[in-house]
User: Fold this.
Amino acid sequence: MSELRIPLVAAAALSGAVLLAITLPAAAQDPRAELAARIDSLAGIYEAQLEQVRVLDSIRLARLRELRTDTTVVGPFVVIDRDTVPVQRLVDALTAAWSRHAAFVGHAVRRIEGTIVTMTLPPAFTPAGGAGQYRFEPFVWGSADYERAARHVMSSVLTDALPADLREWLDGGSVLPGGSLEWPYRELATAHSHAARNCFAGDVAACIAASGLTDPGEDWSRWYTPGQLRAQVAQRSWYSGAAGACVHQLDDAACIAESRRLGGALPPLGGAARASLLASALELGGTGAYARLFDDAPDVGARLANAAGLPLDEVVASWREAVERARPSIHAGMLDAGIWTVILLAALAVLAMRSTRWRLG
Assistant:
């Protein structure tokens, strides 16, 4: 009896396993089938949306083709006019700017040949490189500022074409000879750095160091004293960890460590001063000065010397003298202020005489 029971139990187990094998795959496959159906439905929606995008693109391209596109060549620039914006004044301003700077650009003009200049309203600026060209949509602040737009285009093109080490050294500055030196003067006069202060006093070697043309040292001691570096850390960091030890415990090593953590000490002279030094070198070099920036050179200082055709210390000395001459007048505006003071006092006197306390009789 027991021998008969074993085959029956085995048969029952086998049949149950078969039934389970039949039902489980079906149940397991249901979510997959449902997901596949959903994906198929989304694919249809995507194709429909994509077709709408194609239609809209075709309409946009058709409208663009209807616009008459004229081009005007100004030196290395190609100015595009699509009738939507009057650009003749920009062409005139760009022509004047190029005539002033063509000589010092020299044979380096091939590096900026074919630069595309367009205008947009509202103002926009979108450089986009491609096939050695640049696309500029310059800022135009009102109808009277096309000269500023032309200068902006010229400066941007010449800066973007510079060698990589020179662009990095500029620290965000842009090159254009003939700019104002008032801001570099203020930067040099107020920098919290012994190198900048010595430069301001006439030390050319200190000017070279403060301009980032030499190695500042692992501890930035050629730029800052320990106290000056500590003051910079205090401005840039929360007072915790190495910064706290630097500021509160006057730990010079902690100041150096925190400056390293921050990516290095900030240079005494930034982009505005450095750009003015580059502009000064170009002005000293005259014809072909910009082209000579691309000559083989071991460092940025050598490039500036090549451009100017002078030793670096003479270039920097000339720049420092020019910056010193750009010192803002402390008496500027005093005459106007004096006139308005007299007018205000006279008005107050009239009002006082109208008061009952000051009336006679």
User: Anything to note?
Assistant: The longest helix spans residues 2-66.
